[in-house]
Amino acid sequence: MKGSASPPRPHRGRAGEALSTDARRGERSGGLLREIAAVLAKDLLLEWRSRARLLATILFGIVALALFSFAAGADAEVLHRGSAGFLVLALLLSSTLALGESFRVEQEDAAIEGLLLLPIDPHALFYGKALGNTLFLSLLGPVLAGTAVVFYAVDAGPLALLKLVGLWVLAAAGLSAPGTLYAAMTSRARSQDVLLPLVHYPLVVPVLLGAVKSIDLILNGDPMGQLGSWAALLAAFALVYWSLGGVLFPLAVEE
Amino acid sequence: MQPEGVIIGGWNYVIAAYAVTAVVLAAYAWSVRSRLSKLQSRNRQPVREPGEPTNG
Amino acid sequence: MAGRPRISSLSGLLGLVLLLIGSWIGLVVAPPERHMGDVARILYVHVPCAWNSLLAYTIAFGFAIASLWTRRARWDHLTVGAVEIGLVLNGLLLVQGMLFARPTWGIWWTWGDVRLVFSFLLFLLFAGVLALRAMVDDPARRGAWTAIATIVAFVDVPLVYFCVRWWRTLHQMQSTPETMSAGIKLPMRINAFAILFLACWFIARRAELERRRQEVDEAPEPARIPVAGRRVET
């Protein structure tokens, strides 16, 4: 009943050559991991070829950090206290752009239809995309953190830095998994630019709170030893949505 | 905040809360019913001739 | 199928009568609460809304799984009905909560109260589901995506609850029936069932509305492809 209602898709677009050969190789060896790697490689290649867009997203994060300083006022103390929140918000805002872009490129020339026609596991498509997004958002960390060091006088020792990196990656993973799933849907809906943040932001509130709290604890001291539970929350969120995304993504993209 | 004291009055808030509840539920019920009856009356209209062009 | 509208009408009628009885008891018969006085009467409708809103989301989650599993449009329509009544009750809950907070705490809103922030986030979370649905035209895709978004949002509920709880626990209002005298439980329970029955009626009607709307959307389709004056069966 529902199947008959959907109109035929006009486009059967092309797919990246690198992916198709890699995917066929993956098929032969039968490894999901290989397929994921192929999707990831394809996305990284695309990102590299469009470096300008990559740079624009990073620049956007820096602009956001600068704007927060204006909003919070020139008080160094206030800026320093809010630095964790500003950092994570900048990450969240940039993630919207990055996630939207990661599927916009697939919508051009209906490339996603071609991807789905390939003998490739849709799970691999999800995990490859989500990994790519996680990687990109993680790499945003050093840039934003460097900016924060300058803007907000953030200071961290080597051990704190190590913890920060771990938490940042967890937060990036937490944002990417549901974000990739939603971006796959919203990129093919109307008003996609409004829709993605509208559905994504309320969902990732645990990531936002967890990341802000734990980064704040690292930067400004953790007298109660709460860092562990916040990190666990971030990890739990990432785990839940990396699993759920893998289950639901094939259903979201199938015709 | 007030372990010993009792809040006096506040009936206007109580009435406002019940009124809002009643109005919202009634409005939602009315909206669903009216949309439904509109669709039902549209469905009851004579079926279009097969070949007749539509502007749907 | 033929019996359903009658059952749902009965449920709606029962809910309406119960709501009137419960509210009458809550507003007139029940004595003022020991500490909160008359303001506590808001809770007789506030708490049932909260319970049923959460229940509606849970039911929507079940419908969404059924919708993805069976791919029957009927489950999709029920999902929309459940999410929507959940949102209506959730919205009511927020307004009632603010009307309760003002005379008791002296403020309309506080980010310090776990339940307030939690319900607000739930509202945004599930409003997103309907927003996504509204932006998709293809019925099959719309059904699948609504179900997926509902599942994704529902799975987030415990995570949101815990993070808000850890984030701030300034003052936890004791507003559950366990801390109240027995006489106060009665109107709350009657209203809880009243709103439950009303919600059933809303879900059934809303689902029927969605079904008919889809019928209307699909109806002109066969007439568009006439071949030699005959309708082509698809």
Structural commentary:
The complex is a heterotrimer of chains A (255), B (56) and C (234). Helices cover 83% and strands 0% of the residues of chain A. Chain A contains eleven helices and no strands. Residues 1-19 and 21-29 of chain A have low confidence and may be disordered. Chain B is mostly helical and 56 residues long. By secondary structure, chain C is mainly alpha-helical. In chain C, α2 (43-70) runs antiparallel to α3, α2 (43-70) packs across α5 (139-167) and α3 (73-105) packs antiparallel against α6. In chain C, β1 (226-227) and β2 (230-231) form a beta hairpin. Helices cover 76% and strands 2% of the residues of chain C. Chain C contains seven helices and two strands. At the B-C interface, α1 of B face α1, α2, α3, α6 and α7 of C.
Task: Jot down its keywords.
heterotrimer, A: 255 residues, mainly alpha, globular, disordered N terminus, C: 234 residues, 7 helices, 2 strands
Topology diagram in text:
The complex is a heterotrimer of chains A (255), B (56) and C (234).
Chain A: H1 2-5, H2 17-29, H3 32-49, H4 51-72, H5 76-107, H6 111-117, H7 122-152, H8 158-186, H9 192-203, H10 205-220, H11 227-253
Helix pairs in contact in A: 2-3, 3-7, 4-5, 4-7, 5-7, 5-8, 5-10, 7-8, 7-11, 8-9, 8-10, 8-11, 10-11
Chain B: H1 11-44
Chain C: H1 4-29, H2 43-70, H3 73-105, H4 114-134, H5 139-167, H6 182-218, H7 220-223, E1 226-227, E2 230-231
Antiparallel strand pairs in C: 1-2
Helix pairs in contact in C: 1-6, 2-3, 2-5, 2-6, 3-4, 3-5, 3-6, 4-5
Distance between the termini of chain B: 61 Å
Percent range of helical residues of chain A: over 70%
> In oligomeric terms, what are we looking at?
heterotrimer
**Beta-strand percent range of chain A:** under 5%
Pick out the low-confidence regions of chain A: 1-19, 21-29
Measured between the Cα atoms of the first and last residue of chain A, the distance is 14 Å
Broad structural category of chain A: mainly alpha
Q: How many runs of DSSP E, i.e. beta strands of chain B?
A: 0
Task: Quickly describe the structure.
Chain A is mainly alpha-helical. Chain A has helices at about 1-5, 15-30, 30-50, 50-70, 75-105, 110-115, 120-150, 160-185, 190-205, 205-220, 225-255. The longest helix of chain A has about 30 residues, at about 75-105.
